[in-house]
User: Which sequence fits this backbone?
């Protein structure tokens, strides 16, 4: 099979040209980075698991009417997605204090927040993804007020739904990061969920023991990183007993 043309390589994923116009293939790597790529490593099998976990969560979100870029999983490490114009924002939702919120504001990690808090970061590695407000976002034209209304509404629905979904399998959804894109269809623009949802961009704690089951194990050198990602997949019911090698997806036919 002819190698597809690579369009972009990010820290954890590669984007290739898709089989039809308006589609892309998203390839999940095992590479892991933290602290804006100052810490680098490999989490064996992470790409396979994140591909599967993100597929599962995007499909569940589609079922409740959340528009996403996801089309279908192609194989162990690749999924077919719709090509969108990425809005240069990282939208973070927090339910429990952790990470940068705890550090900046001195709120102990694990404190349940009085309500879900949304934060926005401008996607720019050179600037270290600075936190911005809706004022910056609309003033600099990264998104319009209408885009932001859609993004907030979608994000709150996603948070409620995923909080319940994870709680059902004994996991607390502490916080997570989403990215959105603009999808153009017959002169009409829709905001859709893009990127991925996986333990790379969620904080997931065991709801009984508060044990971390996400990328913080890598960021903080806690060990058992692969096992944590596998456990998330297992609890979601998408990891076959035989392990990740058993996860066969249909092969891409071009
Ligand atoms: N996050 C992410 N990518 C980033 C920054 C944060 O996916 O570039 C996720 C992170 O995994 C966590 C949430 O967003 O689930 C909040 O992260 P935080 O602001 O606490 O930053 P961190 O402590 O990860 O630097």
Assistant:
């Amino acid at each position: 099979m002819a190698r597809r043309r690579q369009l972009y390589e990010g820290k954890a994923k590669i984007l290739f040209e898709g089989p039809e116009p308006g589609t892309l293939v998203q390839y999940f790597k095992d590479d892991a980075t933290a602290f804006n790529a100052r810490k680098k490593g490999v989490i064996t099998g992470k790409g396979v698991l994140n591909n599967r976990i993100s597929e599962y969560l995007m499909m569940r979100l589609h079922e409740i009417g959340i528009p996403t870029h996801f089309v279908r999983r192609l194989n162990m490490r690749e999924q077919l997605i719709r090509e969108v114009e990425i809005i240069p924002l990282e939208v973070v939702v927090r339910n429990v204090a952790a990470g940068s919120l705890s550090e900046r504001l001195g709120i102990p990690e694990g404190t349940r927040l009085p309500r879900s808090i949304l934060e926005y970061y401008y996607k720019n590695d050179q600037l270290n993804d600075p936190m911005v407000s809706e004022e910056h976002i609309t003033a600099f034209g990264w998104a319009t007020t209408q885009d932001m209304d859609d993004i907030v509404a979608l994000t709150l629905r996603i948070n409620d739904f995923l909080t319940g979904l994870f709680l059902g399998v004994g996991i607390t959804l502490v916080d997570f990061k989403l990215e959105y894109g603009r999808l153009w269809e017959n002169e009409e623009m829709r905001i859709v969920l893009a990127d991925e949802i996986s333990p790379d961009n969620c904080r997931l704690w065991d709801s009984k023991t508060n044990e971390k089951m996400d990328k913080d194990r890598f960021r903080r050198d806690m060990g058992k990183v692969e096992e944590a990602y596998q456990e998330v997949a297992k609890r979601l019911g998408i990891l076959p007993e035989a392990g990740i090698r058993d996860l066969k997806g249909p092969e891409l036919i071009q």
User: Anything to note?
Assistant: Residues 90, 92, 98-101, 129, 175-177, 201-203, 215 surround uridine-5'-diphosphate (CB under 6 Å). The chain has two domains: 3-84+224-249, 85-206.
